[in-house]
Known about the structure:
Shape of chain B: globular
Distance between the termini of chain A: 12 Å
CATH architecture of the largest domain in chain B: 3-Layer(aba) Sandwich
Order of helices and strands of chain A: HEHEHEHEHHEEHHHHHHHHHHHH
Largest sheet of chain B: 6 strands, mixed
Shape of chain A: elongated
CATH superfamily of the largest domain in chain B: P-loop containing nucleotide triphosphate hydrolases
Largest sheet of chain A: 4 strands, parallel
Number of helices of chain A: 18
Helix content of chain B: 25-40%
Number of strands of chain B: 24
Helix content of chain A: 55-70%
Number of domains of chain A: 2
Strand content of chain B: 25-35%
Strand content of chain A: 5-15%
CATH topology of the largest domain in chain A: ABC transporter involved in vitamin B12 uptake, BtuC
CATH topology of the largest domain in chain B: Rossmann fold
CATH architecture of the largest domain in chain A: Orthogonal Bundle
Largest interface: A-B, 21 and 29 residues
Number of strands of chain A: 6
CATH class of the largest domain in chain A: Mainly Alpha
Radius of gyration of chain A: 28 Å
CATH class of the largest domain in chain B: Alpha Beta
Oligomer: heterodimer
Strand order of the largest sheet of chain B: 6-9-10-3-11-12
Amino acid sequence: MKITRLLTDYGMLIVLGLLCAFFSVTTYSDQSPKGAAAAQEVAATIGQQFGRTPRVLIAVSDQPDDTAFAAGMASALVAKGAHIVATAKGGPKEARDALVKIAATGGKIDAIACTQVSGAWLVFADLKADFPSLGDPHVITPPSYRWPNFLKSENLMNIANQIAVIAIVAIGMTMVIITGGIDLSVGSLLALSAVLATRFIRDYAGGLEASTGGMLLACIAAIIACGLVGAFSGSMITRFTIPPFIVTLAMMLVGSGLAYTLAKGEAIYQIPDSFVWLGRGADALSLPNAVVLMLVLYALAHVLMSRTKLGRYLYAVGGNSESARLSGVPVKRVLMFAYIASGLLAGLGGVIMASQLKSGSATYGNMYELFVIAAVVVGGTSLSGGEGKMIGTLTGAFTIAVIQNGMNLTNVESYTQKVVLGLVILGAVLLDKIRQTR
Amino acid sequence: MSETVPLLTMRGIVKSFPGVKALRGVDLALGTGEVVALLGENGAGKSTLMKVLGGAHQADEGTITIDGQVTPFHSPQDSRRAGVAVIYQEFNLVPGLTATENIFLGQEVTRAGFVAQVPERERAAALFQRLGVEIDLDLPCRRLTTAQQQLVEIAKALAFDARIIVMDEPSAALTSHEVERLFVIIRELKRQGIGVIYVSHRLDEIFAITDRVVVLRDGINVGERPTNQITRNEMIEMMVGRELKDEFPTRTSAVGPPRLEVSHLTRGRAVQDVSFTVHRGEILALTGLVGAGRTETVRLIFGADRRESGEIRLDGKLLAINSPRDAIQAGLGLLTEDRKLQGLVLGHSVRENFGLPNLERLSRRGFVQLTQEREEFAGYIAQLKIKVSDQEQRAGNLSGGNQQKVVLAKWLARNSEVLIFDEPTRGIDVGAKFEIYLLMNALVAAGKSIVMISSELPEVLGMADRILVMHEGRVTGEIADARQATQEQVMSLAHA
């Protein structure tokens, strides 16, 4: 009893876990630390091998990771009391120049701190023969180890950041589907919101010189505009009892058309660099801000659905709207809430997307409504309404993201990815059905 | 019966579901041209037995013999091939198709791959002629009355030469007039040699139409007798397994001042200028034929439909009721006729169903107080003796009687002043019926008022203080003292 309930509630989580395990195994490979972390390791090794005041040459390429490595190396070595003879940045040529210079002045070197890349340069291959005067320098590179590419923290962050937009929009979609409806307009609203937010910033908040307050106002205005579209859909559905599929299909066309008209068919990018804070920044615990926002929204939505009167009403309306109405549930207001929430969250998704891509375009969010619905359905929410959980939707969104990411890492062709994704959606729902009939 | 070669013999039928043994070796025989009543409380196994016969369930053990031949019953197709037609309570008709299309659904008459509409239509007309009734063959079934839809089901059975017809609660949605007509048809079927298994809770009908009574309890046979050799009380005792003193509990409550006053309520032709008053501590019965406008009237009072005119007063105060929500806040409660479609959210837990009209009171700043909800509901489970495995059980998994008790608990917790019971005991077994009657008595004793819609005249006479009879949307009569009324009196007003 307990176990079956556990399976019913968390079956999809188990599937997600298995997927992660599968991709961890298939992407298990050699890893080399990079940047500041690698510098720490190399500094520690040098400290152990050469005592208190080793004489060190730092040789790196001019990649950003290597620059970070060099900087980290310098501060770590200075802290240990080592003597940095020179720092060679660029390629093998710069490294040779540095060695020649040191040799010319009669200097000696104990260690050459390298990254994986610079450590393999031919100039360091036979130092004893080439530069006998330098003593016996050792090339120290960061130790390599084996670890799944999939499980690297930057890859996991990448997955979370990639799916944040879809997952946030899926919160509203879950509410709508739980009431027994559907919202096909979210993809278009995403585009509309991105275009509106960037246009407001470009035209009214000062463009590239826009202040934080101005950008905030522009984003809020864009989100509210999407909320109003949701309210319009909701009122068509409740007042004239037009099926949600038809109403939101119409709004999908309207929203997309408006977005193209407002953007005049081009991308809007005249916005300040600081605008990417929401989409690319990472403040708390080095988690991306969009992911933090997503988690907060899920926590709130979960509480709303499971603990509040409104949540109960959403389920009741989807379970049996006539019974709900005759029990005194304000059915129309509940439906209005669901569609407005879906509109607002789609608007928020658009703002995040504009921030991630640092521009606004009417092409954003194309087909997203399908991914969002897929996330909800894979998460176990019934399209006939009355059932479903926010946690399920989050799991569903991550399942889709993990599959896409995993296939990218394992070099599956993008056309094949589509086929797999389609089958996975079908499989997840099939699994749900089998579990229910058992 | 013993002389006739049995048309159908079911022997030692056993059927288990996870956790329940629904049938524990049931025997049933049916002769040619015989009408057998299958009786039993809800959960006794009647429906399961009939589903085995219809091929919807497969028996774990036991044999089914038709004309002395053991016949496999693995699927509805097997059952149909063996000449068995089961007419379930919820009809198996496609609402958008016509009577003809429904009758021949799955066995279309075709010519060169196309449906031969004219011959189909002629054959359908012939079938209805055989039944002695006329039905518009071109109307979609959804526009036919319940009684007409039932006739379509019977015609469908005849269309594939069924020799055994099972009718599950055939009278549940029929007026007494329509039931009479159904009986004429059943007698005609009898004459044509068709065996009928008649499942019903209404004992009067059992006496009127059946030849033999078979009683089930807890999945086994507990008695079998020719109908003319058994009394009503004996039947009930067999079903419930105990002696039953009275079908309706007595009540000694005093009727107080006026409570709910309804005046000039009108909506189209369904409800025309209906006025009445319910008093404190009173049960007012609203009766009449199906379609007389009783349910429509209470829906107007409850704000479920929009009224064209009319006023509703509670304790002298005019109420502005424009939605069920308004009505509930004013202190009204409605137990709908159809619990499954209107009374409960079947897929949700009984606790959530219980809480639904009470969430305003059970929540603080929008948050539902789960502990309080659970405690209150536990109280009602004990008080109303609701049989649930736990509070999280799905409402759809309960028997009719327990579903009705959950609905009742909803409104009791709401502390509604005026409760409207629309067919409160439809599809509910004898034992649970009595408990619901007791509860109604307790409610009026506590000063509540009850409006009860019922098509069952014994219930109307046995429970009400006062009777209001409706016909074609109008109130056609009032009987001030229900205790002195007779069934004939009520019927004559209903047919006014």
